[in-house]
Amino acid sequence: MHLLEQLELTVPVFQAPMAGVSTPSLAAEVSNAGGLGALGLGATKPEQARALIAEVRARTDRPFNVNLFVHLTPKVDVEREARWLEWLNPLFVEHGETAPEKLSSPYTSFLDDLEMQALLLEVKPPVISFHFGLPSAACVTALKQTGAVLLATVTSPAEAQAAEAAGMDAVIAQGIEAGGHRGMFDPHTPDDALGTLPLVRLLSRQCHGPVIAAGGIMDGAGLAAALDLGAVAAQMGTAFLLCPETGLDEAYRKALMGQAAFHTRMVSLISGRPRGLS
Ligand SMILES: Cc1cc2nc3c(=O)[nH]c(=O)nc-3n(C[C@H](O)[C@H](O)[C@H](O)COP(=O)(O)O)c2cc1C
């Protein structure tokens, strides 16, 4: 069956899961409007995730997506981290704060998070999407048995091939112009940095399953272009940022309404991975 029919979507729009920004009310509003709402759970602990999923279900009967980060957990390097803390210390002092004694990763990988895996098997979200990589084969099998539709962000033909081989039901083709973290599986491999439209075109010819376009799509004309190139839907993030339902703070909202919004930068300052910021 066509993915959109399977998900009962009347609008080919997936709201991007955005860790720290998407909320249950945004997800429910989008799903109620016929698109696919989403929760970004990449920085969320399992018990909080349980409450957020319950809140979406209280607001909509329609399918929605929950998104997890599946990165390789960074290896601890005590000496290197001590040097970072030494370098950062004056900044903490300048702001009247105490530097932490050690550094820790801001995100727990779904690969290591057995509690989150058990939670998803229990609460059975209708759609689950993965960013930065793929879950284990055993986890894919178990999640599929719940009836979940599984999606993965990919940024290249090789990642798309791996995602399909791992059993993903569809791939999200994320171009270099996408807002948020670039979902490459391994940030240390060479990056062809393909734009959304060429990537969608390549993948719509290569992939056996559906392709969802993500990156720089802000309106119906952009969506129509992506559909023309073979996508079945577009996943849009930036376009939703100013919705009243997002968790965006006032400073970020103000910046997005000014000139700064016309200048996108790739930075690696938030997690060490490439991230598009406006
Ligand atoms: C603020 C922000 C946070 C994001 N967080 C996530 C996330 O947690 N998980 C994810 O899969 N994608 C995340 N993304 C990327 C989106 O899924 C999508 O690839 C991107 O928004 C598409 O580009 P656009 O912003 O130009 O629409 C985020 C995007 C933005 C703008």
Automatic annotation (TrEMBL):
UniProt keyword Zinc present: no
Gene Ontology biological process terms in this record: response to toxic substance
Cofactor(s) of this protein: FMN
Keywords of the record: Detoxification, Dioxygenase, Flavoprotein, FMN, Monooxygenase, Oxidoreductase
Signal peptide: none
Coiled-coil stretches noted in the UniProt entry, renumbered to this chain: none
Gene Ontology MF: a single term: dioxygenase activity
Superkingdom of this protein's organism: Bacteria
Catalysed reactions listed for this entry: 3 propionate 3-nitronate + 3 O2 + H2O = 3 3-oxopropanoate + 2 nitrate + nitrite + H2O2 + 3 H(+)
Family: Belongs to the nitronate monooxygenase family. NMO class I subfamily.
Protein name (database record): Propionate 3-nitronate monooxygenase
